[in-house]
Model the fold of this input.
Amino acid sequence: PSGQAVAPTPTDAVPTPALAGLTSERRELRFRSGEVELAGELSLPRGDGPFPLVFILHHSGPVTRDAYGYMAELMLPRGFAVFRFDKRGTGASGGSYGCCEGDDGLAAYSAAVQQPGVDRKRVFIVAQSIGTSYLAERFAAFAQVQPPRGVALLSNLLTATTITSITAPALILVADSETNLAAIGADAAAAHQSVATTTLYIAEGAEHTLFDVRDGPIDWSDPSWVQRYHRGAMKKLLTWLAEYAAM
Done:
């Protein structure tokens, strides 16, 4: 209808996550960011809670929650609750895509950490690509809502001059194909070490979003792209989360 916002169509195929049997509950959440109502899902693992929470801040583009379903599939069996949400103008979220992503991420975080079943003392933020920039810009606000136990910076965009605003233990995961690898890898890690514990992992044979291209380029229109995640990088992420959740 005329005047009604139309959600953009993602260019990537986004398979429905295979979460059957992995969850005790898939809780649909509605929350507000400014005047817009957004939507997301808190997936709780099987077993007795409260559970450590992984909150995901998306990479760029009109991304829905299911773009990170493959991560939920891996994290839930390891006892982590996972929160994923639809960016504004996508999926079940209202509004028009194209603005306010940092504000929306903060609103989503506020909604997620307050949920029953979540252990607020064991909250982790997993931010990817542009999400790392939004997190750094607003980290004080995120920490005011709930200081995270740790932050994973996937496809990190932060350099030595921007990463020190994140005053929490950090895991930096970057692909070896990045043109500015030293700046967003070793240099960023060294700078962050001045404010909190830092771990750096460089994924060999990965493209920017940490999918494995050693067997050739990825066809993002093929739903099987979710199986091409870099095994070494994902293993490092899961091991790091388990280590800090046990502290």
Remarks:
- The longest strand covers residues 23-33.
- The radius of gyration is 17 Å.
- Helices lie at 69-75, 101-113, 130-137, 139-145, 181-184, 186-192, 231-245.
